[in-house]
Design brief:
It is built from 7 helices and no strands. With 171 residues, it is mostly helical. The model has no long low-confidence stretch (mean pLDDT 90).
Length: 171
Protein backbone atom coordinates (compact mmCIF):
# COMPACT_ATOMS: atom_id res chain seq x y z
CA UNK A 1 0.00 0.00 0.00
CA UNK A 2 2.86 2.34 0.85
CA UNK A 3 4.51 1.82 -2.56
CA UNK A 4 1.12 2.40 -4.26
CA UNK A 5 0.81 5.79 -2.54
CA UNK A 6 4.41 6.59 -3.46
CA UNK A 7 3.67 5.88 -7.12
CA UNK A 8 0.53 8.02 -6.98
CA UNK A 9 2.36 10.88 -5.28
CA UNK A 10 4.66 11.06 -8.30
CA UNK A 11 1.63 11.70 -10.51
CA UNK A 12 -0.07 14.39 -8.44
CA UNK A 13 -0.11 16.97 -11.27
CA UNK A 14 -2.04 14.57 -13.51
CA UNK A 15 -4.43 13.63 -10.71
CA UNK A 16 -4.92 17.27 -9.73
CA UNK A 17 -5.65 18.10 -13.38
CA UNK A 18 -8.20 15.29 -13.55
CA UNK A 19 -9.84 16.45 -10.31
CA UNK A 20 -10.00 20.02 -11.58
CA UNK A 21 -11.62 18.87 -14.84
CA UNK A 22 -14.26 16.90 -12.90
CA UNK A 23 -15.00 19.85 -10.61
CA UNK A 24 -15.37 22.26 -13.53
CA UNK A 25 -17.65 19.77 -15.30
CA UNK A 26 -19.68 19.54 -12.07
CA UNK A 27 -20.03 23.34 -12.09
CA UNK A 28 -21.41 23.19 -15.63
CA UNK A 29 -23.83 20.40 -14.70
CA UNK A 30 -25.13 22.48 -11.80
CA UNK A 31 -25.38 25.54 -14.03
CA UNK A 32 -27.42 23.67 -16.62
CA UNK A 33 -29.86 22.29 -14.06
CA UNK A 34 -30.28 25.57 -12.21
CA UNK A 35 -30.89 27.59 -15.38
CA UNK A 36 -33.39 25.02 -16.63
CA UNK A 37 -35.41 24.91 -13.40
CA UNK A 38 -35.09 28.50 -12.18
CA UNK A 39 -38.33 30.40 -11.68
CA UNK A 40 -38.40 32.69 -14.73
CA UNK A 41 -41.06 34.94 -13.17
CA UNK A 42 -38.85 35.52 -10.13
CA UNK A 43 -35.82 36.16 -12.37
CA UNK A 44 -37.85 38.71 -14.38
CA UNK A 45 -38.85 40.47 -11.17
CA UNK A 46 -35.25 40.59 -9.93
CA UNK A 47 -34.05 41.75 -13.34
CA UNK A 48 -36.55 44.60 -13.38
CA UNK A 49 -35.28 45.60 -9.93
CA UNK A 50 -31.80 45.95 -11.46
CA UNK A 51 -30.27 42.62 -10.51
CA UNK A 52 -27.55 42.07 -13.12
CA UNK A 53 -27.18 38.37 -12.34
CA UNK A 54 -30.90 37.77 -12.79
CA UNK A 55 -30.72 39.50 -16.17
CA UNK A 56 -27.80 37.26 -17.16
CA UNK A 57 -29.68 34.14 -16.01
CA UNK A 58 -32.72 35.17 -18.07
CA UNK A 59 -30.60 35.74 -21.18
CA UNK A 60 -29.00 32.32 -20.77
CA UNK A 61 -32.32 30.55 -20.23
CA UNK A 62 -33.74 32.23 -23.34
CA UNK A 63 -30.85 30.87 -25.41
CA UNK A 64 -31.43 27.30 -24.28
CA UNK A 65 -30.17 25.60 -27.47
CA UNK A 66 -26.95 27.60 -27.59
CA UNK A 67 -26.42 27.11 -23.87
CA UNK A 68 -27.03 23.38 -24.06
CA UNK A 69 -24.71 22.94 -27.05
CA UNK A 70 -21.92 24.85 -25.33
CA UNK A 71 -22.36 22.98 -22.05
CA UNK A 72 -22.45 19.62 -23.78
CA UNK A 73 -19.26 20.39 -25.64
CA UNK A 74 -17.34 21.73 -22.64
CA UNK A 75 -18.51 19.09 -20.18
CA UNK A 76 -17.64 16.24 -22.52
CA UNK A 77 -14.23 17.67 -23.34
CA UNK A 78 -13.44 18.11 -19.65
CA UNK A 79 -14.61 14.63 -18.71
CA UNK A 80 -12.71 12.99 -21.56
CA UNK A 81 -9.58 14.85 -20.46
CA UNK A 82 -10.11 13.73 -16.84
CA UNK A 83 -10.52 10.10 -17.88
CA UNK A 84 -7.44 10.33 -20.09
CA UNK A 85 -5.31 11.77 -17.28
CA UNK A 86 -6.44 9.09 -14.83
CA UNK A 87 -5.80 6.42 -17.47
CA UNK A 88 -2.22 7.64 -17.90
CA UNK A 89 -1.65 7.41 -14.15
CA UNK A 90 -3.32 4.02 -14.03
CA UNK A 91 -1.19 2.67 -16.89
CA UNK A 92 1.95 3.85 -15.09
CA UNK A 93 0.77 2.40 -11.76
CA UNK A 94 -0.47 -1.08 -12.66
CA UNK A 95 1.71 -3.80 -14.08
CA UNK A 96 -0.88 -5.12 -16.54
CA UNK A 97 -2.56 -2.81 -19.03
CA UNK A 98 -5.89 -4.62 -18.73
CA UNK A 99 -5.94 -4.05 -14.96
CA UNK A 100 -4.99 -0.40 -15.48
CA UNK A 101 -7.74 0.23 -18.01
CA UNK A 102 -10.33 -1.60 -15.90
CA UNK A 103 -9.36 0.35 -12.76
CA UNK A 104 -9.46 3.69 -14.58
CA UNK A 105 -12.79 2.88 -16.25
CA UNK A 106 -14.48 1.79 -13.02
CA UNK A 107 -13.09 4.63 -10.93
CA UNK A 108 -13.84 7.35 -13.46
CA UNK A 109 -17.26 5.91 -14.28
CA UNK A 110 -18.21 6.28 -10.62
CA UNK A 111 -16.60 9.71 -10.31
CA UNK A 112 -18.35 11.04 -13.42
CA UNK A 113 -21.77 9.70 -12.46
CA UNK A 114 -21.71 10.72 -8.81
CA UNK A 115 -19.39 13.72 -8.57
CA UNK A 116 -19.68 15.34 -12.01
CA UNK A 117 -23.37 14.66 -12.64
CA UNK A 118 -25.71 13.47 -9.85
CA UNK A 119 -24.37 15.51 -6.93
CA UNK A 120 -24.16 18.91 -8.66
CA UNK A 121 -27.48 18.47 -10.44
CA UNK A 122 -29.15 17.41 -7.20
CA UNK A 123 -27.72 20.37 -5.31
CA UNK A 124 -28.76 22.79 -8.06
CA UNK A 125 -32.27 21.34 -8.20
CA UNK A 126 -32.76 22.05 -4.48
CA UNK A 127 -32.48 25.82 -4.99
CA UNK A 128 -32.30 26.56 -8.72
CA UNK A 129 -33.05 30.28 -8.37
CA UNK A 130 -30.12 30.90 -6.06
CA UNK A 131 -27.73 28.69 -8.01
CA UNK A 132 -28.72 30.26 -11.33
CA UNK A 133 -27.88 33.69 -9.92
CA UNK A 134 -24.47 32.41 -8.82
CA UNK A 135 -23.55 30.80 -12.15
CA UNK A 136 -25.13 33.23 -14.63
CA UNK A 137 -22.33 35.77 -15.07
CA UNK A 138 -19.52 33.18 -15.38
CA UNK A 139 -21.71 31.21 -17.80
CA UNK A 140 -22.19 34.27 -20.03
CA UNK A 141 -18.41 34.57 -20.27
CA UNK A 142 -18.07 30.89 -21.12
CA UNK A 143 -20.81 31.20 -23.72
CA UNK A 144 -18.98 34.05 -25.45
CA UNK A 145 -15.82 31.99 -25.65
CA UNK A 146 -17.34 28.59 -26.52
CA UNK A 147 -20.32 29.57 -28.70
CA UNK A 148 -18.45 29.70 -32.05
CA UNK A 149 -17.03 26.20 -31.51
CA UNK A 150 -20.39 24.92 -30.21
CA UNK A 151 -22.16 26.39 -33.26
CA UNK A 152 -19.69 24.69 -35.60
CA UNK A 153 -20.16 21.40 -33.77
CA UNK A 154 -23.96 21.78 -33.93
CA UNK A 155 -23.74 22.46 -37.68
CA UNK A 156 -21.77 19.26 -38.21
CA UNK A 157 -24.32 17.32 -36.16
CA UNK A 158 -27.16 18.89 -38.17
CA UNK A 159 -25.38 17.96 -41.41
CA UNK A 160 -25.32 14.30 -40.35
CA UNK A 161 -29.01 14.34 -39.51
CA UNK A 162 -29.65 14.70 -43.25
CA UNK A 163 -32.13 16.73 -45.29
CA UNK A 164 -35.08 14.47 -44.41
CA UNK A 165 -34.84 15.37 -40.74
CA UNK A 166 -37.53 17.77 -39.55
CA UNK A 167 -35.59 18.79 -36.45
CA UNK A 168 -31.91 19.57 -36.05
CA UNK A 169 -29.88 16.76 -34.51
CA UNK A 170 -28.02 19.21 -32.31
CA UNK A 171 -29.56 20.65 -29.16
Amino acid sequence: MNSFLTVLSGHWPLLAGAALCVLIAAFFAAAETSLLFANKTRLHQLSEEGNRRADAALRLSQERNRLHSALLLVENMLLVLAVTLVSVVSLRTFEHALHAVAAAAILMGLVVVFIAKIAPKGLAARDPDRVSLLVAVPMLAVMKIISPLAAATASVADFFSGPASSRPLSC
